[in-house]
Structure formats: C-alpha cells, structure tokens
Amino acid sequence: MGSRRNLMASPRNNTDNPNNHTDNPLKCLDNLSNNLGNNSSDNRRTASRRLPNHMDNPNTTRARAMGGPPPGQPQYGAPPPGGGPPPGPANPAQVQGYKQTLMSAVQENNLQNFYPPNSPALDQIAQRASHQIAQLCQRWRLPQEIGNDVVKLGLFDIVLYIDDSGSMQFEENGERIKDLRLILERVAYAATLFDDDGISVRFMNSLPPPQVTEHIKTEQQIEQLMSQIQFKGLTPMGSHLKERVLDEVLRNARGGQLRKPVLVITITDGQPAGEPQNAVFEAIRNTTSELSRMPQYGPGAVQFQFAQVGNDEKAREFLSKLDQDPQVGSLVDCTSNYENESAEMARSNPPVDLTPELWLVKLLLGAIDNSYDRKDEKAGGGAPPGGYGGPPGGQYGGGPPQGYGAPPPGQYGQPPQGYPPQGGYGGPPPGQYGAPPPGQGGYGRPPPGPPPGQGGYPPRY
C-alpha cells in the first residue's frame, strides 16, 4: 500500500500553527490529554477507563471538551457567536485541494457511481469545507492535516446504530451511556459541517418514532431522542442491523433511490446476544453481496465501522473476531475503546498522548480511509503489543492508487504543490458507471502490498 501516514512521527516546529510542525504532531492537543493523567502510561490507563472526567465539569461542559458547540449555540454547524466577521470567499486553490482529497476518497471507496469525474457534488462539499475545517480544528484541537481528512464524511449519509442493551445502563455506573452521548454529539457535529441533512440514528432494541431519529443536527434533538430510550434487553446486533439499517439501504438501492453511499457506525459495549452467533457476519456479507450485483451502485455503497464503549472483554474479543474474519474482516473497521487505544499509544515509541478528539477521528474515518483503518494489518504479520486496539507498527496511511482523483503527491499532511494547506450534495447517481479502479482489490480491500511492520490481530486461523 506504499508508505503509511505517521500521526506520531512527522516533525513540527510551531505549536501555535496547526500547519507547522513540532516535535510531537499531537502537541497542540496537550491541554486535553493532560487531563488523562501525567506522562506515565500506568496513570493514563487508570484515568482513561472512559472518556476523560474533565468533561463532567459544568464550566467545561462535555460538549466543549470534545469539540461540540459552546453553550448557547444550538446548531452544530453554525459559526461561534461573536467569532468575528463572516468568512470571505473561499481560496480557489484551497477548494481545489479539498476536491482532490474527496476524489481520492471516491477512488479508495469505489464511489465513482455516485461521484463521477467533475461531479458538482464534490465542488459543493469542497467549497463548504474551506470554511468549516478551520472551525473543526479549533474546537477539536486537531492538527490541520488531520482535520482535513474529515471532509471525506461529506461523501456519505451517516447512520449511527446504537447498543441500548441493559449492560449500557448497569455496567460502570452508567458511564457508557455518557460516552455514547458524547459520541452521538460529536458525530452529529462533524456530519453537519458538510451536509445539512444531519445523521440518522437506530437502536438495537428501542423503536422511537422517525421524527426523533432522522436529521439529527443539534444538541436539543439528541436530548429529545435520548430521553425516549430505555436501556434494557439483550444485544441483537446483527439481526436488527439487518432489519433496521441495512434492509432500508437495500430497499432504496433496489428502487434507484440511494442518493449517497451510507456509512454505518455501530456503537456497542458487548458481544451479540439473543441471536445466532453469525448474524452480524451474515448481515454484512449479504448486503455487500447484493450491492455488488447492482452496477449503478456497487458494494462501496455501504461502509461499516464498529466501535466499543466500556471495558467488556467479550466485546473486545468479538470485535477482534469480526476484524479477523477472512470474509468480513476486509469489509469493516473496528475501533477499540478509548482506554485501550490511549494505553497502547502511551506505550509506543515515542509515547503519544491520544486525545479523545483523535480517537473520535479514527472512529469517524476508519471505515472510509485506509490510513486510519487497521483492517489490512492482518497481512503484515503479528499484532502490536497489547493486541487489539494497539497502534499500527508502521506508518499511517498511504493514499489509494493513482488514477481517478489521484491523491496529492508527497507525504501525509503535505498539500499538493501549488495550493495552501487543505483546510450541496448532488442528485442521484448518474446511471451505470465503471468497475473498481485498476489495482484496487475490490470493496473494502486495501491496495496490494501491506506496509512493512504493520501489525494486526493475532492469527485465529
């Protein structure tokens, strides 16, 4: 896959400017990461059982601590009050840079049927991103080159599929539900930066009315939705993933009404229960198989992220099994809980303080950007220390192969030559268009050639 992007090793020399370099590319996030404890990995692991406690402080609310709107700003996509004059016209070179990033994502995810070359939808997203990415980086305290990647969310409709089983309520004193709310708020915020439609939410057990589960954009909508949810019952993860999310995607596809590809983000604290053991695997496999037989869409029309909240070891083992599965593993990305991810990065060399924001970026982008996705690590040999949830052993990322929307030249975080740092949606897909690009192994498969030193889950064959 070529050289991998390295979140941890690119040199920097100015912490005040996210486009410049410091010794640690995450240095600009230290104010948040310091709340996880001191530089000792033991202290960090103790402090990070859940997303950091400083979010409970009413003076630094959960929303602000993880990048949401300040108090009094209900609309996630709106600019901060009193934040200065309205943005001026977008820099054409900057817009072109975002468009190039989007074109690379189109190729990587086989979305040419939705976004053919010169699609006006890409121009619309890029224009909007030129104003919104700086806002995202400021609120989430992200380096610019990391924030730039979030523009790829604009290509997708996002469905959050939530575990509302009893264990979410009773384990860890309900802290898992607090973390879930944070994730829901942050996903809604990031999605509405580029699309006014908001996100859709589905639950494994509850069936709230559509008026509170569709077009979620604001904190008030989230509160209204969550007030109607009773966390109880088992975890029918696969059967209800099919019935409540994927069947709807397939109905729209069969009727030619699937206007955008769908990113399904599953948030769970445990392993499936109350259904056949292979239900999740079958739901994913059958959906992608049917979509692959629809040339106007293709299997790239749906992407899957599975993320863990809480510290349940069975959940961790299930996600490892899902990611390692020889048939399904290449179709999904799995993100361990924040505790596991931060502890593993603390043990890396050099140690890295993983902030909640960067963990969320991985959750958001892992299924659609191979530089955040570890599903291809299996081909690279053994697991990193600690196994599942550990950081990659090699370089993060390398873009997709050259071709349609060829990625910007150079290393991760470097803009294409001649344009500054990177900072509407069109109609239905325009008919039947093309096969996966040459050299692309097919839906969800990384390009040939794993990066050297890239780890993965322990072999389970």
From TrEMBL:
Extent of Pro residues compositional bias: 68-90, 427-453
Start and end residues of each stretch annotated as Disordered: 1-95, 373-461
Record field: compositional bias (Gly residues): 380-402
VWFA domain span: 157-358
Cross-referenced Pfam families: vWA-TerF-like
Signal peptide annotation: none
PROSITE patterns registered for this protein in UniProt: VWFA
Stretches with biased composition (Low complexity): 13-41, 411-420
InterPro entries linked: vWA_TerF_C (IPR019303), VWF_A (IPR002035), vWFA_dom_sf (IPR036465)
Name under which the protein is recorded: Putative transcription factor
UniProt organism field: Diplodia seriata
